[in-house]
Amino acid sequence: MSFNIDKSILLFYNDLEDNTVERLTMPEMEKSVGSDFIREMIRKDIETNRFGGRVHTRFPPEPNGYLHIGHAKSIVLNFGIAEEFNGLCNLRFDDTNPEKEDIEYIEAIKEDVRWLGYDWGDRLFHASDYFDQLYEYAIQLIKKGKAYVDDLSPEELRQQRGTLTEPGVESPYRNRSVEENLDLFQRMRAGEFPEGSRTLRAKIDMKSPNLNMRDPVMYRIKYATHPHVGDKWCIYPMYDYAHCISDSIEGITHSICTLEFEDHRPLYDWFLDELGIYHPQQIEFARLNLSYTVMSKRKLLQLVKEGHVSGWDDPRMPTLSGLRRRGVPPEAIRNFCERIGVAKNDSVVDIALLEFCIREVLNKTAPRVMGVLDPLKVTLINYPEDQVETMECLNNPEDESMGTRLVPFCRELYIDRDDFREDPPPKYYRLAPGREVRLRYGYFIKCEEVVKNEKGEVVELRCTYDPNTRGGFAPDGRKVKATIHWVSARHALDAEARLYDRLFTVPNPLGEDEQGDFLKYLNPDSLKILTHCKVEPSLGEAKPGDRFQLEREGYFCLDSKDSHPGHIVLNRTVTLKDTWAKIEASLKEA
Ligand code: ATP
Ligand code: MG
Fold first, then answer.
1. Beta carbon of 62 within 6 Å of any ligand 1 atom
2. Active site residue 144
């Protein structure tokens, strides 16, 4: 696959970047939803009454890892199509490889699909539910002379398979009699032979230009306990054999899969035709690739195992559990998947589009609160010592129905250190010696004195406030150029903030050939932990997973694992606005 950022999406995003959020509805994109080539095909099948007008899809993960946002594309597509066409969508675990599979993954996958908002009803299936049937079908193929037991070792099989330019070599065991094959296959099942000593192979064509058709293995011997069916079997079907027949057994009408399965389709056709069983329509689409991350389960597993991240649900991971923990709303992922649509050619979607979709949902739904990530103390020297006021603050200026809350205000406050400069550069309009700014929902304050410690660091600002500016306006009409946020020092709660950034420093960490050493591009600054943050007291009521906008700082959620009463841990989901610089850089790379 060549690395090519989909420019239509990128430009589209760019056009909107400098507009207000309300206008970011992406009308052109939305039109494409409901009219892609897959839906066109399905519509035709309904019109012609193929499959009796039924639409039945499935999402078929292998339970060998956690789901990522690429899987979300497939989930949204399969469940979405079923919903749209009044059909059904199954969740099926293609669990043919017990050594790599685990109950932990099965449970996590179910949780993730539910979290995304989809319901498989009573249609949770496993390829392993069909192991008896698959075995019977294998016997049928043997009896038809279409399958044989091979004694070659895995290494020999590999050598004899040939290459794209050279045909394969027929196995010396290829022409065993049906009786001998039946006997050997039954004994394979009975556990008479050691692992790796024999396989059952389909008898197709060792000279086929399609390597998948060169007598592929259907069964191998594995003395492994299966997460779903335990120790019942010591032979396990290969994915390709089990997958197409499982779709057939379930009466799937449209087997939607990613492009790499195009070359497997002739094999699926062969199995179903030789068995003479129900035949779904396979449709391939391009998988989702996202810039600044990796998506292969093997690579994600490596990141976890080698400790580059804290686990599958590390908020920097592109996994659904990671995105959830980071505070991403499921609606944002669904919107993202619908917007990118489906196509027949591979492309890379800029992660900025995902971030945009996240902001769009959070802007509408996340209550605003005030919190200071890097606190700098402010004392209002003319504010009465014992006075405490409560300021009424809007929970969401985008949605007044979200109401207001009361935030305490007193003589000692914290502001963000970044909102003060001793020597303000040009165009810096926030607080500086002698300068006046507005406190959000508060008063105008003016910096009168800068207090430093013995190292010369600024430790406190002594300011005056203008009692006539409550509400943020001066009766004499004088203006200030900046509004900054604050918390009351006496009332604020301590918090830890985890600021996440992209996991990799380059858009395509795997390189052009997809084989590169991606670890060397790990972003050393992908996690910054700030332990001395101060947040407004209303956050004391928040529950793990709750999402907020810390005004002017970004969108955050309470970490679902580490945050508890008395110890607030905030994950930054996204910053408030992407900078032009980032977008421009990615345009240059494209
Ligand atoms: P593996 O390498 O283990 O096969 P996989 O990514 O194909 O990994 P599966 O569990 O087989 O994982 O995937 C389940 C479904 O999700 C399949 O139908 C697959 O085509 C689809 N899928 C996986 N990755 C993507 C992706 N990046 N974009 C779209 N669909 C995907
Ligand atoms: Mg797969």
1. yes
2. no
d(CA 242, CA 250): 12
Mutation pick for ligand 1 pocket among 247, 285, 287, 320 (CB with most ligand atoms within 8 Å): 287
455 is catalytic: no
Question: Using one digit for the tens of pLDDT, what is the confidence trace for 467-513?
Answer: 999 988 999 999 999 999 999 999 999 999 999 999 999 999 998 77
Residue with the two structure tokens 């004994």: 187
Measure the CA–CA gap between 380 and 461, rounded to whole angstroms.
9
Q: What distance in angstroms lies between residue 258's CA and the mean position of ligand 2's atoms?
A: 9
Alpha-carbon distance values, 147 to 8, 134, 169, 285, 542 (Å):
49, 13, 16, 31, 62
The reply to whether ligand 1 has any atom less than 6 angstroms from the CB of 73 is yes
Give pTM, 2 decimals. Answer: 0.91
d(CA 191, CA 129): 20
Give start and end residues of each alpha helix (H) in 227-311. Answer: 239-249, 265-275, 297-305
- Residue 475 DSSP class: T
> Residue 445 has what pLDDT?
98
Instruction: Report pLDDT digits (tens) over 385-415.
Output: 999 999 999 999 989 999 999 999 999 999 9
Beta strands in 397-516 (DSSP E): 404-409, 412-416, 436-439, 444-452, 458-465, 483-484, 487-488, 493-500
CB 330 within 8 A of CB 67: no
Cα separation, 129 vs 294, in Å, equals 32
In short, whether 287's Cβ falls inside 6 Å of ligand 1 is: yes
Give residues with Cβ within 8 angstroms of 362, minimum separation 6. Answer: 327, 329, 332, 547, 549, 555, 573, 574
Q: For the range 541-547, what are the long-range contacts, defined as Cβ-Cβ under 8 Å and sequence gap of 24 or more? A: 542/568, 545/327, 547/327, 547/329, 547/362, 547/365, 547/366, 547/573
Measure the CA–CA gap between 199 and 217, rounded to whole angstroms: 6
C-alpha 579/C-alpha 501 separation (Å) is 13
- Vertex 91 angle, CA 85 and 95, to 5°: 145
> Look-up: residue for tokens 């209002």?
380
- For the segment 416-420, the average pLDDT, to the nearest whole number, is 97
CB 36 within 8 A of CB 42: no
- The H or E element that residue 15 is part of is helix 7-17
- Of 62, 77, 282, 514, the one to substitute when testing ligand 1's pocket (max ligand atoms within 8 A of C-beta) is 62
Contact 388, 413 (CB under 8 A): no
- Other CB atoms within a 10 A radius of the CB of residue 27 amount to 7
Longest dimension (CA), the chain: 103
110 in catalytic set:
no
